[in-house]
Amino acid sequence: MPMSLDAVNIADKLSQIDELWTQKKIAALNDYEVKLAKLKGEFVWHTHPETDELFVVVSGRLTIRLREGDVVLEPGDLYVVPRGVEHCPVAEEETAVMLVEPTGTLNTGDAGGPMTRAAEPLA
C-alpha cells in the first residue's frame, strides 16, 4: 500500500459522523484500527477477552463504568480498559472519542446484540 502524505484531521472526520455508537475507521496502524465515534447515553456491559481497549476523549465527558468503580474522562484524557474487564461506557452529553483496537474488534465485545457493529471506513 502506498504511503499517504495526507494528515488526518480529527475534527473534520468527526463532523462527518451523524450516528451515535457507530465506530468509524480513520487510520490503520500495524494490525490496529484508529476509530472515532460519537456517544450519548448508555452502552452495553461487555468485555473484550482477547484485547485491551484504548479510549481517548476528544470532546464531551465519558464515564467508563467498571464493576470496581467508575472512571471519568474529560477532553484530552485517555484510559485503557484491560482485556477481559467488564465495562459499560456512558455519556450524559454527546461525547466524541477516539479508540485504538486490533482490526476487527467488535464494539460490543462478547455481549453481541442489536448495538453490535463492525467499524466502517470514513472517507
From TrEMBL:
Residues 104-123 are annotated as: Disordered. It holds the Pfam family Cupin_2. Residues 41-99 form the Cupin type-2 domain. InterPro entries: Cupin_2 (IPR013096), PKS_Associated_Protein (IPR052044), RmlC-like_jellyroll (IPR014710), RmlC_Cupin_sf (IPR011051). This is Cupin domain-containing protein. The lineage of its organism: Bacteria, Bacillati, Actinomycetota, Actinomycetes, Streptosporangiales.
